[in-house]
Structure formats: C-alpha cells, structure tokens
Write a structure and sequence with these properties.
- By secondary structure, this protein is an alpha+beta fold.
- The protein has one domain: GIY-YIG endonuclease.
- It has ten helices and four strands.
- A four-stranded antiparallel sheet has the order 1-4-2-3, with helices on one face.
- The chain is globular and about 50 Å long.
- The C terminus is likely disordered.
Length: about 240
Amino acid sequence: MPIDGCHRTFDELARVVLPAYMARMRESMASPTPMSDFAIKGRGPVALREQLGLPDDPRGCYVLLDGNKPVYVGISKHVIARLMEHVRGADHLTATLVYRVAAMRHPHGKTAANAMQDEDFKARFEEARGYLKGLNVAFIEIENPLELYLFEAYCALELDTSFDAGGWNSFETHQSRGVGGEYLKTSDSIESISRSHTGTEFGTRRPFLDTLRSTVKLTNVHRFAALSDTTDSAVVRSV
C-alpha cells in the first residue's frame, strides 16, 4: 500500500528517485543563496519568494554550505519560512540549529530553556547566529512527504554532513543536556524509516543496508552498521 501517496517501491526510490533529487540538489548548490538574505529585517517571505522567483513557499530539502563545504541538510514543509527561522528565531525553540551550534561549541550541562536564561550562553547563541548568517543555502522542492524524509538522510550521507566531518547533522532522538539538536523534526522522520525495515513485512534490515550500500557511494558506509548489528528499533546515526 502507498504511504503518503508514494506508489514507488523502495528499490525504485533508492536507485532512481533519490539519485535524481541529488543531481538537482547539486545543480542548486552550484549557485546558492546567502543566508544573510533571510535575515534582513523588514523583508518577509513574500519578498524573499519574489527574489527567488518562487510562486509559493515550497516543501523541500535544503543544504547549508560553509563556502563550498556542505555542513547541514534539513527539510521543511515551508523552506523559506524555515530558513528565516534559522537566522531570525529568538530562542532554542525557533532557531534550533543556532542553539545546536552554540551548545556543541560551548557545552553547558543545563536544559536548553535554562541555558537561554544565561547571559554568557546567550552571547554564544548570538555568535552561532552570526555563523549561520555567513553561510549559503541551496534547496530543491520535493512534494511527496515520504520521498522528502528519505532524501534528507540520503543527502546528508552523500554530502557527509556529520559531526565527525565538520557538519551539524545528527539523527539521534535523544541528546544529552548541553548538546543542541533539531531532533523533533529530523530524527523522528529517520526513526520511522528505520522502523519500517525491521518488521516481517519488509524482512530484515539487511536488504535496506545492502540497497543503500549499492546506491549511496560513500567511503565510510559503515555508518549504517547500527541497522544490521542491533536487534531493537534502531535509529540511523553516525557511528
């Protein structure tokens, strides 16, 4: 049965659809938009859509770039509004990536809410906001929700935006205090992907792992070892 209107098989998605989206993303990455454009006071979503030649605010996937280096992959039902939140959000609930960067660079051992009441950490938060404003962004529209969730993980792996590689992506559902994360969005989506390949209807995790190994051309493909080595409901994550 189709999920969210997606009638494609997983094999078709992995071998044809996701690589096609990746090719489109690489084209977009060749001419990115400065994140500072989304931070200009008085410029709202309508003006930004007009600047970018968009009829509406698309559902899609975006890549943040530090120079030419991809450092983060995200998804949103409204990409323009989400990018504005990244650089205009007032706290850890809206500017979640800003908080993640600040907390990773300056671990504090507090809850996010308490950290945002600390003047020293708030200064680190603003430094992280400045860092995001200095990045560039590329994005593509992806209408189907399931294809969008799958592509987020595919793109992050293809571009290697993990912490170990100097990026900011993580798909952990639970993070320790003092370490920020957008897990309310990204990890829930990838956890559902992982779980969908653990039941009897889909067989074992091995076909999923083998398909990704054959389609995502990465040197460090062992990041997916958690899928085959654990017996419980695993979450795809860097290991």
